[in-house]
Amino acid sequence: MTSLFADADDQTIPLHIIDEDSLEAWLGDQSQTVQAWVRANGFAARIGQALLVPSDTGLPVMALAGFGTAKSRARGRFHLAAAASKLPAACYAIASGLPQAQSDMEVLGWLLAAYRFGRYSETGAMGARLARPEGLDTARLEILAQAETLTRDLINTPANDMGPPDLEAAAQDLAQQHGASIEVVLGDDLLAQDFPLIHTVGRAADRAPRLIDMKWGDRGPKITLVGKGVCFDTGGLNLKPGASMGLMKKDMGGAANVLGLAHMIMALQPRISLRVLIPAVENSVAGNAFRPGDILPSRKGLSVEINNTDAEGRLVLADALAYAQEDAPDLIISMATLTGAARVAVGPDLAPYYCDDPDFVTALENAATHQCDPVWRMPFHTPYESMIEPGIADLDNAPKGGFAGSITAALFLRRFVDESVYAHFDVYGWNPSDAPGRPKGGAGQATRALLGVIEAMQTS
Fold it and tell me: Which of 255, 276, 324, 393 would disulfide-bridge 224, Cβ 3.0–4.6 Å?
């Protein structure tokens, strides 16, 4: 795979990273010519500022990147990436000013800023490339960036080219890359093998529903990732309005996230046993689409009343979670673009999650801080269990009233996991606007934080 860093023999320009409080001291050590140039160009070391400093002959002798203040840095992440995107095309080598404690994430941000989605049109590459900084595990950082690229590409690809067969092909490619095994239950075989909810949600689409089952590793803790793979969601017979349907190519963002996380795990090879389950479907409208008011069976044996066909993600996840639990893994993680309620609660930047295991919560929160991968814990609020119990069936897929939509969805999913430690992530999977290291479009969320938790679980 092509390196994300500059080639070792490339000529580099020294890059000095300067925060606002250190600028005057740094300038005091420079020549009067450099001082005059920096001041004349208005470089104040603010986040996102970048400046080339020329020699007397006009050739660049150094570059400067603003690092702001502690207060301004607290309002975002990947601050070096903000300057990298503004530097002219060249190769740069960090010469000074990068805090050791933040160096790995700042360098990762630079790599993430170079992402371009160029499948359908020419996109200009970011010209500024970075030499491998000494003292960092740059191979690991490349793996993290490659995983994010995989996730972004999958989400950004429209549904005409990212239906269930295409999502399966992406999983097959990843399995082949890492020597994992993969099995797929397809179409009516879902009924024969007792996955009735996955089949019901996907049966109205021209492209058959399927359950993708990938396995890697045979030692250490057993960890199962379950990702929602709704490749397009019309809402079914409870048809979404046009404005709400426009981004539904990203409704397979949970699957894209678990595939990105799986790439990290398999490339870094911690001592764990990994399983990835992806129910891949399209929620379409046709004569055989499931209906509001239907009562459906599930793999676990619980009956589900359908009060809104647009609450389909929890249905396909339910069968996959029940199947995951049958293998008694140590940890089950589900990731899904599940509810609008989660976006209302925490916005697009935070990944809300549900888990009652204190060891998992502590490990995740610590990893999220270090990995610049923010998460926010939400409650499995048991008193709300009655809201998902309609009386006519065991469970209700869309409780009326509109309250606590993300919590009730999480409680619904928890009914299908009995003994394993369970964590559910209700992610958005999308950056609505450009930010340093995070361009507008598909996005991975919580995966680097989860990697930290999983690596801490490994055993010899």
Answer: 324
pTM for the full predicted model: 0.97
**Distance (Å, rounded) from C-alpha 22 to C-alpha 47?**
13
* DSSP element (H, E) containing 214: strand 210-216
Domain CATH number, residue 328: 3.40.630.10
Question: According to the model, what pLDDT value does residue 304 have?
Answer: 98
**Which residues belong to the active site?**
240, 314
Q: DSSP state, 53?
A: E
Q: Is the pLDDT of residue 58 over 90?
A: no
* Cβ atoms 143, 111 nearer than 8 A: no
At 10 the pLDDT is 84
Q: How far is CA 285 from the centre of its chain?
A: 29
Residue 234 near residue 245, CB atoms below 8 Å: yes
Query: How many whole angstroms separate alpha carbon 28 and alpha carbon 34?
Result: 10
Same domain, 129 and 148: no
Are residues 104 and 151 both part of a single domain?
A: no
Structural domain includes residue 1 = no
Confidence of residue 459 (pLDDT cuts 50, 70, 90): low
| CB contact set of 346 (below 8 Å; sequence gap of 6+) | 352, 376
